Each structure stands twice: as structure tokens, then as C-alpha cells.
């Protein structure tokens, strides 16, 4: 089965992991700080690593001080963790509709959803294309709320020449194997605001504090630490950080390859009937995590099934979050975000990853042409 996405591991990646395994530190060691510094060079802002993209969101929401009664506005066209991370802290999730062309959070819909209880607006860089952060920033600044960027798809992308880690108050990354770079499992939170990043760092380390300047009782002894607020163990180990640093050295190559594959899809699929190709926007330079086409005329399910039967592992990204039973049971109903639901009804992610060969891509195109041309 040709997957829709997969990791790219080379000898340098393997060597980095082996070296970490032979060191004195398997976790909480020097490779964590090294990877965080390497991430900052790409993200444009200081970073704290965590165990995965879901825990990155949980830690970022915790850093904003979310409490029951607060509201978080976000998009339904995302993986459930963008919403569940806020819900697990007791916040009410408010879903706003998406832009018709990019499937990113529609700033006008987000602005209309703001109330006196809003604490965070969370955007998602769908498929690697950054959201409209300038418009969203005007909204959050006016309302006095936090702007969070879920950049699980977009590390390596820029918006108006600025790297994604600099665009929001807090930005989260995922390093799952299908993402633009991988640590196996892993994630990170970036922020240009030191006080927020400090809260993320505390939260990912079970709330423990060792900095003498912050201790209430600094003279207890060098072993002493304190917990001022509850947190969880979300620490990413040195072994995975070693892989992450090695992968970051290949990120430019990954981006170039994904751009070439995207351009080939654009060219080879341009005249296929019943197919709408992904939108391009001049203000962004994306690293394409997904190649999401839209299959018209109600044929998405047929095309999905026939491509899968042919050994081509297409995917659907995503089920509108409020369709999941956990939100349905909370009173959310279908029809809330019609643009997102229309997008979902047609969306199909074609295989896209750095090691995808031209011949494999040609196979995808040929199969798709055969189905939609019949």
C-alpha cells in the first residue's frame, strides 16, 4: 500500500539516535536543549519540546490559564486535539467556520464568535498553509485574548516572510512520522513571550521548579524543588531529540521535494474532470504537509474506495471535530459550520511525502484519471 504520508530516515538520522543511546543521557539531557535551540532557528522563536503534538496543545492552553467558563474559538477542520486540549481544561470550545479555499479558520467567522468569555482563538495551518495571522491578530488584540497557532502541519512555512513560530502568542508543532519532520512521537511549543514559555516548561515537567530565583524556600538545599501549579510529565527524551536535530538539518530538502511534488500534481491533474486542486496564496510560502484535492459531484467515497483497492493509501483530513460523539454528547450539532462540512464532503488527501518517487506519483495520477474519467 502506498501511504498518504511517511517518514524519511537516512543514515545520519540513525547515527544520531545510536550516539544518544550510547551516551549518559537517555532523557532530560543535553540533546533536549540542543534540539530546542535547533527548533528556534527554524521557528523563529524559543521552543520547549514535549511528547507529541497533542500534549503541545494541552501545555499551550494551560499556559494561557484556561479555566472552566472560558471559551476557545477554533476551526472544526482539524484533528480533534486542537479542541480537546482546551476542553480537558474545562473550557468551552466554540467552532467557527473556515475559508472556502484554504479550509483555514475564517477570521470573519472567528470575530463574530468572540464574547466576553473568549480567552483564546486557535488557528490551524491546514495542509501546511499558514492561516491569516495578521487579520486574526487584529481580532485578538482588540478583544484582549490569546492567539494560538496550531502549526502541526507547517513547520518550515512562512507567512509574509515571517516563520510560523513568530505569528501567534503560542505556536504548537507535531513531529509525528507523517509530518514534515519526525522524532517518532514528539512536539514542541514556541513563543516570543518568555512568561508563557516558562509556564509551558513548568507544565511539561510536572510543575516542578528548581530555579532559585523562583523558589519560595531557596535555602533548603541543592536537592530542593517546588511545585507551584500542577503539571504533567510531557518531557521529550534525548533519544528522540537527537533524531529531531538530525531531521531539522534535512528540512530544507524536505520542503523543496514537497514543493516539487506539489507542482507536479498541479500540472498533471490540472485538466482532470470533477477535481478541484488546492488553493495557492501569494503571501505564504508553505511546506506542503498534505495535498488535499476536492472530489466533486458526490464521488469522494467512490474515489477513496477505488484508490485504496488499487493500493493507493489516500486519506480524508478531517472529520469536522464537532461530529465526533464526544462533542455530540455535549450538545454540538451538525450544520454549525457549513463551509467546513462542504469541504469535508469532498476532501481527499493524495500521497505526499519527501521520499515519494515521480513514478509513484505518476501511478496516483493515472489511477485518479482512470476513475474520474470513467
UniProtKB/TrEMBL annotation:
CDD domains linked: AHBA_syn (cd00616)
Record's keyword terms, sorted: Pyridoxal phosphate
A single GO molecular function term of this UniProt record: pyridoxal phosphate binding
Cofactor(s) it depends on: pyridoxal 5'-phosphate
Keyword Transport: no
Origin superkingdom: Bacteria
Post-translational modification N6-(pyridoxal phosphate)lysine, affected residues: 179
InterPro entries to which the protein is assigned, alphabetical: DegT/StrS_aminotransferase (IPR000653), PyrdxlP-dep_Trfase (IPR015424), PyrdxlP-dep_Trfase_major (IPR015421), PyrdxlP-dep_Trfase_small (IPR015422)
SUPFAM superfamilies the record matches: PLP-dependent transferases
GO biological process annotation, one example: polysaccharide biosynthetic process
Active site: 179
Keyword Cytoplasm found: no
Family as reported in the entry's similarity comment: Belongs to the DegT/DnrJ/EryC1 family.
Designated name of the protein: UDP-4-amino-4, 6-dideoxy-N-acetyl-beta-L-altrosami ne transaminase
Lineage: Bacteria, Bacillati, Actinomycetota, Actinomycetes, Micromonosporales
Amino acid at each position: 500500500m502506498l501511504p498518504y504520508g511517511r517518514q524519511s530516515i537516512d543514515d545520519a538520522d540513525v547515527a544520531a539516535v545510536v550516539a544518544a543511546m550510547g551516551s549518559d543521557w537517555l532523557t532530560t539531557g543535553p540533546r533536549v536543549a540542543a534540539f530546542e535551540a535547533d527548533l528556534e532557528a527554524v521557528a523563529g522563536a524559543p521552543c520547549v519540546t514535549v511528547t507529541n503534538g497533542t500534549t503541545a496543545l494541552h501545555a499551550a492552553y494551560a499556559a494561557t490559564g484556561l479555566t472552566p467558563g472560558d471559551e476557545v474559538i477554533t476551526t472544526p477542520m482539524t484533528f480533534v486535539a486542537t479542541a480537546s486540549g482546551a476542553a480537558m481544561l474545562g473550557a468551552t470550545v466554540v467552532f467557527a467556520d473556515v475559508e472556502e479555499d484554504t479550509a483555514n479558520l475564517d477570521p470573519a467567522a472567528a470575530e463574530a464568535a468572540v464574547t466576553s468569555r473568549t480567552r483564546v482563538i486557535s488557528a490551524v495551518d491546514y495542509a501546511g498553509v499558514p492561516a491569516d495571522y495578521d487579520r486574526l491578530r487584529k481580532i485578538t488584540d482588540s478583544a484582549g485574548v490569546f492567539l494560538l497557532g496550531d502549526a502541526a502541519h507547517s513547520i518550515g512555512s512562512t507567512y509574509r516572510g515571517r516563520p510560523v513560530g513568530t505569528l501567534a502568542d503560542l505556536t504548537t508543532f507535531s513531529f509525528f512520522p507523517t509530518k514534515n519532520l519526525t522524532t517518532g512521537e514528539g512536539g514542541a511549543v514556541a513563543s516570543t513571550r518568555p512568561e508563557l514559555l516558562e509556564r509551558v516548561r513548568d507544565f511539561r515537567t510536572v510543575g516542578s521548579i528548581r530555579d532559585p530565583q523562583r523558589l519560595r524556600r531557596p535555602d533548603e538545599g541543592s536537592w530542593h524543588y517546588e511545585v507551584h501549579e500542577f503539571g504533567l510529565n510531557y518531557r521529550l527524551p534525548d533519544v528522540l531529540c537527537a533524531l529531531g536535530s538530525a531531521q531539522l538539518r534535512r528540512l530544507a530538502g524536505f520542503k523543496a521535494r514537497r514543493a516539487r511534488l506539489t507542482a507536479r500534481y498541479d500540472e498533471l491533474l490540472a485538466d482532470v474532470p470533477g477535481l478541484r486542486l488546492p488553493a495557492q496564496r501569494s503571501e505564504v510560502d508553505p511546506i506542503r504537509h498534505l495535498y488535499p484535492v476536492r472530489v466533486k459531484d458526490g464521488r469522494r467515497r467512490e474515489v477513496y474506495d477505488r484508490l485504496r483497492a488499487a493500493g493507493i493509501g489516500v486519506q480524508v483530513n478531517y472529520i469536522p471535530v464537532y461530529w465526533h460523539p464526544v462533542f455530540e454528547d455535549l450538545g454540538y450539532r451538525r450544520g454549525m459550520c457549513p463551509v467546513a462540512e462542504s469541504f469535508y464532503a469532498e476532501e481527499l488527501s493524495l500521497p505526499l511525502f519527501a521520499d515519494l518517487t515521480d513514478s509513484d506519483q505518476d501511478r496516483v495520477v493515472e489511477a485518479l484519471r482512470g476513475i474520474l474519467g470513467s
